[in-house]
Amino acid sequence: MSIPADLKYAESHEWIRVQDNIGTVGITDHAQAELSDIVFVEAPAIGKKVSAKGNVAVVESVKAASDIYSPVSGEVIEANPLLESNSALLNTDPYGDGWIYKIKIENADELQQLKDAAGYKAQIGE
Amino acid sequence: MKSTSLHASHVAAGARIVDFAGWQMPIQYKGILDEHNAVRTGAGMFDISHMGEFFVEGPNAAAALDRLLTNNVGKLAIGEGQYSLMLNDKGGVIDDLIIYRTDENKFLLVVNASKIDEDRDWVVTHLAEGLYFEDASALYAGLAVQGPNSPQIFTKIFSTELPARNQLAVIEFNGVQGFVARTGYTGEDGYELFVPNEAAPALWDALVAAGTTPCGLGARDTLRLEMCYPLNGNDLSPDHTPLEAGLGFFVDLTKGDFIGKPILAAQKEAGVSRRLSAIRVEEKSPPLRPHYPVVIDGNPVSETTSGALSPSLQYGIAMAYLPVEYSKPGQAVEVEVRGKRYRAVVCKKPFYAKPKN
Q: I want to staple B197 with a disulfide (CB 3.0 to 4.6 A). Which of B3, B5, B71, B117 is the partner?
C-alpha cells in the first residue's frame, strides 16, 4: 500500500495535502482497496462549512456507501470535477487525480492532531 | 458463526468475508464488477453451501408436498425441478425454493440459508404423517457455476452429461456421489453442484483449474437483480403474496388445496393492489439500495426492496412494491437517496437481456 510521506492522515482513512492555507483531501490507497470498485462520489457543495471529523462527502462502492470525514475544519472551496464522470479515479489514483475536495483551513493547529505516514502505517498494520 | 467447507479455499483466493445469515461468506475476491462480468461473459462460481437441502420421501410424497407449495409438484417427472414458494396461511411468502423429484416418491428441496430453521419447522409441522423428512443442510456443500462457458467446464471435470434446463442428475467426483442441477440465479446458462462437504475443496480446485472465476455474494446480488430474480428477505416477505411479487407463473391455482391458496384465489379474482415493480434511474445517481423512498407526484408511496448500480447496464436499478395504478412500465417515479430525488421510470422485467449474437 502506498502511503506518501508528505501527507497527513486521519484515523478514518482520509489524507490531506496542505499548501499555504489550502488543504486537498482524498482517501488513502488502503481505503480505496478496502472499498474497491468505487462507482459514485457525492462531492460536498462549494462554500459548505465543515468541522473536523464531520461528514463532508459520500463514497459509494458497488456494495456499500461510506461517509468521508473532513480531517480539518474549514470551508469547501472546490470539488474534483473529474469524479463526476470517473469516480474510479479514487481506485486508480487515490493521491493524485482521485482527490475529492479542497478546503480553506480554519485552524492550522488541527493538523497537529493528524497522523504522519509512519503513524498511519502503524494504524493499518503494514 | 458458521462457515462452509470451502472457507479455507475462499481465504486462499483472497476473499473478503462477511456475515451473511449467520454464515461467514465471501462477499468478493478481486472485485464485484470483475466477478459480475466474468459470469456474463465467461464462467464464475459461487459457494452456495450455506443453502439448505431437505429430503422428503415416502408414499404420496408429491401430494403431500403439493399442499405445502404453490407450484405443481405432481407434474414433475423424475429428474425434473421447479421453482416454487412456501406460503403462510395468509398467502405471504415463507420461502422460495427449488424442488427436484429425485425418484417417484423422493424429493430434494433447496432452500435459503436464512430460512433453514423456519422452513424445517414449517415443513415438519405441516407435512402429512408417514413421510420421511431429512434436513441434510449440514452434510452438503454447494457450488453454483454460472456463465456462457460453464457447460464446457463441466465436461472438463465430469464424465456424465450435463442435464437439460431445470433437470437434475447424479454426478460422481473423486469417487463420491452428488447432484448437478441445471439451474441458477444469474440469468446465464449454468448449473449447481451439490456434493458432500469433504469433496468440496477438491471440486473447487478443479473448477478453478478449468478456468472458473470465484465470485462472491456481491456479484450474486447484482446478477440476480439485473434479472429481477427476487431475494427472500428483501423482495419477498410474509407480508407479500407471490401474486404481488409477480410470481403468478409459479402458482398453480388449478391444483388441489395448498396453504395460502384461498387468499391467492381471492386476490387473483379481485386483482392485486400492489405489485413488485422494476425501476431504473434516468439520470446519473448513486447506486440504489434497499429501503430508499420511492416518490410519485411528490409523495412517497413505497420504498425499494433491492437496489444496485447495474454493472451490465451502468445505471441504477431497483425493485419496489408499487400501488398497481403506478406499476405500469413508463410510469415516472423518483427515488430518494440521502434527501435528494432522482428521476426514474418503471420498466419491464428483467432489466438485463442477453445481447443477441
A: B5
